[in-house]
Every structure is written in structure tokens, then in C-alpha cells.
Amino acid sequence: MTVVHITGARPNFPKAAPVLAALAGHGVDQRLVHTGQHYDDKMSEVFFRELDLPRPDVNLGVGSGSHASQTGAVMVALEELFTAERPELVIVYGDVNSTLAAALVCSKIGVPIAHVEAGLRSFDMTMPEEVNRKVTDALCDLAFTTSPEAIGHLAREGVAADRIHLVGNPMIDTLLKHLDRFDPAPAQAAHGLDGPYAVATLHRPGNVDSEAQALSLVRAMHKCADQVPILVPLHPRGRARLLDLGFADHPGIRVVDPLGYVDFMSLVRGSVAVLTDSGGVQEETTVLGVPCLTLRPSTERPATITHGTNRLVRAETLPDELRAAIERGRPATWPVPPLWDGHAGERIADVLVPWLAERAGDGATAR
After folding, report:
1. Strand order in 310-313's β-sheet?
2. Is 203 part of the annotated catalytic residue set?
3. 34, 203, 222, 235: which one is catalytic?
4. Whole-prediction pTM value?
5. Under DSSP, is residue 277 helix (H, G, I), strand (E, B) or coil?
6. Rounded Cα gap, residues 300 and 60, in angstroms
């Protein structure tokens, strides 16, 4: 009985690493499939080197493309793979196109699905990720949630209570495991940062696809850079538009290519604030106690606001919010959501191992 993990994009890798490790500790037969949705070194390969991830057993190499072409390419490849070698369970992570594609294929051919990070909702259906989340959760057999509010979202959508398991956040498992490696000083020196600075990550369609929205963002970021230098590992998505609009023309904006996990988290840890539209960064800053200003009208991770250091902001309010965050300084103490303690992967394994044993009928999977 084989468990297959589907990873495809940068956010999936730190979520999958603790689950792979925990199941390996129980002797579960596993395969790792990388769809190749993200494929260059800093968006993909560096995670296998830095997070002790096993090399993928299969790399589908689908590459970039529109939502339809990318999702379709993953579906065709996975259908062939799962038809030839049928797994007992497929585990999907997060809300990227590879997640949706795997869930659709498995539902059509009758392979059970476990969704790690189930139940997150922004209630903004203009976000492609929200569509991916809702469809995946409707199809999954096991829903692993990172925070209590996700349970309510799933229940309202008709997901049976015995399919839902509150386990905590495996991305935080990875962060806590590598915490001692996040030394800001060498990372700052490598980027010529010798004083206070902020870090920014920007790629959401609502911020970069529309020229008007992107121009508003550029102007806001320039006002922020008047206050403090901002290091921006700029995502390929939206990069050309932002640069064409003069994003990097301000001397305080330092655009770099996407960074590896350790370098990026080291810089985040040492920053005065993070400006982002990412989901995972909201969670990581919550645990590190770094002020986070999220450039979105809503978040699927409200626990980062109620139990963390995150605030939702608009482009026009961003400079004032950054100034206030710098004046407040880093908090001495801050709340962290329940079960974000470094053991989510183990709790997921504690659910899956008996589930697999029951499927096998004789417990052979937990050898």
C-alpha cells in the first residue's frame, strides 16, 4: 500500500517535509511526485537541498502556463501515473493548481485523497487559490486543518465531522525545525543591509495583473522605501509589469531573484516588518513575531491576525501602516495559534497510519 505526495510549487515543500518524515518513521511506503509547476532552482530545487526532502520519485515537468493548461497537463500526467501504479492514498498540500489537478484525477478514478491545510477560506472567489481550496475540500476523504476556524468552514460546506482532523500547521514544523539556521547577520551582509530594513513579497493577481493596481502598489512601495530600505525577492509572476512601471527605480527598493528557504527566512527574521500578499509568509511571521502587513482585502488565515502579528492593509494605507509598525517595534511577546508547535506532521501520521492499517485489513502498512 503506497502513499503518494503531490508537490508542485514553492509553498508545498515546507508543508510536505514534516509529513514525509513522520510517515517514514512509521515505515509507510511513500512516493513523492513533483509536478514541476515551479521548476527553477530558487522556486523548487533549493528546497530539496535545504529541507532534507527526499528526491522526487517522479517529476512531471509540466512547467508554467495558464491555469487551464497547467492544471490540464498535471491531470493528464497524473492519470497515466495512477492508472499504471494505483496508490492507496494521495496527499495534496495547500491550494496551488497541482493540488486541484490531483484531487480531480483521484476523485475520477476512485483513489482516496487527504488534503493538508484544508478549510482555509478567504471568501474571495476572484482568487484562483480559493477555487482550488473549495473544490479540493469537497473531494477529499481526509481534511487536515491548521486552525479551528477551518473546521467550521468545512462543516458548513457539508464535510462530515469524521473526515476533519485539527492537526496544526506543518509549515511551522519546518520553520521550528530549522529555526537555529535563520541567522540574519550573514544574510544581511550578503545583501548589503547594515541597518533597519523591510522585506516584501508581491505576486497576487489582485496586486500585479491590473496596470492600475500595480501602479498604485509601486507608488505605495516607493513611499515605504522613503522610510526604510526594502529587499524584494521578486516572484516571476508580475515581475515584468512591476519593473516596467518603475518599481525598482527607487534607490531604497532592492530587487533580487527569489531566495532559498534559509536565506529568505533569515532575512525575514531580522527585518523590522514584512510587506506581503503571500499566504505562508503571514504564518511564518506570526511565529517569528515579525510585524506583517498583508496587501489584501481578506485573508484565509485569520488566525495570523487574532493570534499573531499580521494586519490587512491597502496600498494607499501601506506607508502609514509601515511607519506605525516601525514606531511600535517588535513585540516582546505575541500569541501563536494553537497546535503551531512543531508536531503537526506527527499528528497527521497518527491519523493516517491507523487509517491505512484499516484499509489494508491486517496493519501491513505500519511495518
Report:
1. 253-256, 230-233, 198-201, 273-276, 292-295, 310-313
2. yes
3. 203
4. 0.93
5. coil
6. 29
